Amino acid sequence: xxxxxxxxxxxxxxxxxxxxxxRALAEGAAEAARVARGISPEQLPAATPCTDYDTRTLxxxxxxxxxxxxxxxxxxxxxxxxxxxxDFTAEDGWAAAYAGQLDRAVAAWADPAVWEGEIDSxxxxxxxxxxAALLLAELVLHGWDVARATGQEFRCSPEAAEAVxxxxxxxxxxxxxxxxxxxxxxxxxxxxxxxxxxxxxxRDPAWTA
Length: 209
Hints:
- With 209 residues, the protein is an all-alpha fold.
- The protein has helices at residues 13-37, 55-74, 81-84, 94-108, 128-149, 158-177, 193-200, and strands spanning 118-120, 125-127.
- Helices cover 55% and strands 3% of the residues.
- Strands 1-2 form a two-stranded antiparallel ribbon.
- The model is unreliable at 1-14 (pLDDT under 50).
């Protein structure tokens, strides 16, 4: 993001939100890399909170869209067909490769120009900050899925959790309609932001492997 300090007046609200989202992306990427390194080959056939996916399938989806997809959207480039069918988990050192790709993706979004205009999201054109928010939710929610499936925790700061909750709240109805989210799970209104985001996206925050 733009690191230049303005000398007159506070930052514009739009730019401040871009910087907040970029910080959340960087935090989520670091945590995703940590969780990936904690996955053993024996865990790849295991069930996940995403009932249609086993761990291998979910990890491949997660790696594709939260790292390669995250960078390619910033660059306004389509995802190559080769990546859509690639089994990342079958490759030696896949977790280290994922960490490196996450770093490149976060760096791509550090360019202020990336946050301007719209990006082709595959189903239409979306304002860049809105698409970044959706990609943050993809990174964190599936990161939580993978972590739980492999007996780990996905740590999320209150600020990042609030950012994820906002994007889930804004898109829950549409995602539920088209099968991206399951039916909401009931949690107390006083539950942490991460639990509320999980529940609204159809995940049970108490799910365990």
